[in-house]
Design a protein that fits this description.
The chain is α/β, with parallel strands linked by helices. It contains 20 helices and 29 strands.
Length: 626
Amino acid sequence: MEKCLNRVKAGDVKKAVVLAAGFGTRLRPLTLVRPKPLLPVWGVPMLERILRMLESWGVEEIAVNAHWQASQVRQFVASRKGRAKVTVSEEPEILGTGGVLNPLRYFLGDGPFWLVNGDVVAEGLDPQPIVDAFERSGGFAACWLSDTQGPRTVEADPEGRICNWKSDVPGDAGTFTYCGCALLSRTVLDYVEPSGFSTIVQAYDRAMMEDAKFVVGVTEDHAFWGDAGTLESYLEIHNALDPDRFEENPNVLFEGVKLVESADLGGCVVTGGLVGGAFERAALVGLDQIDAPRLAALADALGWPRADVACGFLGARGSDRSFWRFVYGDERAIAIEYDDAKRPENARYASHARLLAEAGVPVPRVLADVPAQKALALEDIDGDSLEDRANRRGADLVKLYTPVVKALRTLHEKGTELALAQDAVLEPSFGPELYAWERDLFENFCVKERFGYDGLPKDVRAELEAVAAELQRQRPVLVHRDFQSSNVLYRSDAQERGPSLENFAFIDFQGMRLGAAAYDLASLLYDPYVPLDEKARASLVRLYPVEKLAFGAVQRLVQALGAFGRLASVGQPQFGRHVAPALQNLLAAADEADLDALGGFAEDLIAKEDIRLGHFHHHHDEDEEG
């Protein structure tokens, strides 16, 4: 990308728009405390760094847009002192990187203006090469690119003209990353959607397609660029700007954070609270810094001062629950916010946990229950799972699974006795409707959607209906319903002791109901997540010889395959990798149950899945070569 003779000086550009409205979702919970542009890098907010850079270029008027945590952006702008006049353009509904310009048309005037992301860090950037590129674009638009960092999804020709903003071969030669800084002419506004949400890239594409106008990109090898989109990248920016200081303390601790003697932090960002214990690559925020009345009610129920509680967001689940880790000095808890409108079983977790604990089943202790707030605090079991341990090289699976199988037997025997005696409120029992629902899930999302069949073959359907009828005839017991290896967790303070009832706990039992014991045991012993061989399975079955285990395995695997297919089809492709082992287990269970039609059908599905995987690898290899 060659430079040309300067015709416009960088200092001639007097106006800029800084983008500061985004939600910062990937940086939560930090962005629940502050909008991402106001997160500090070595004590200076990223937005302030951008404003100082623009002022140093001679910019005199700057408009900052705001949406998420807009009041904080307004307060920050009102309190800062700088050479430029800075105003805030608040968006009641977020407008996007292109739509932001519509309410600012009056502000922009006739000359070129800078459009800069407020949540990046740029150091040592010379604006003049971008101005030169702007001239080469015919006075239309230019931007800063990197050919070494970031996702590199932008394609440009040898003259620097950007011809594709969404490359099919990101990272290949000739691809770049947009660094969040552009110089635009007012002409760009002619291609911006006149209202609503839109992106600036949509305007660029429209200009290119309709009038052959191109954005010209320029790289600057000596300049530093960092995009604080994730916790990792936010920390890496600190490391890149001051490696010696970061090596001495590889954490970002906001003012007011209190650490107790046991605190052992590595690569963490903490904004508040009293923190002890070991954490790596974690983001913790002060409970009193976020708007979370349900979490505050839990802290009160625990007797922990709100100002001293730090919270780490563990994620939301499809089961209408959100999980947080509470930290109060050396004490911890798992805080759960739940909705019970669509999933009434969520409100039963605490009562189920107490019932199972009374029966001698290993479950997390209930530390606080605030049903009025739909909030619950449980013992923090932050060790690894049975799935993790079972998949380690050299794991003794029989030894590992033995206490788990024994504990499951306790659930079925003692748990059932207590549940019936206490008239516990459970989910609807396994019966024809639920078995049919699981069968339909398999047919719709696995047989039809994944493999392209019109439906279940008649002989296969007949065998599956017979399986359900057989399970229905068995004496019902209290079943977990989702008893797989990932739902058995080990306590972190028992990592070095052998497996025992005291070391682990069952989780996700809120869907408990009456059903066949074979369903639960088969969920564990035919689990697609862990490859148990026939010898290990036979040894474990002797510990708990349930009736018609293979039938339970068939029913459970049918449900699991349907669930994997559904999840893979709605944007969670990682579940697709479990389909092949689940089919292999289904074939084994069908053979053990003498279900010939199902066994043959399973073989056909295995062959089709092999073809799917083969096609995937073939295309992947072609992409690599391209």
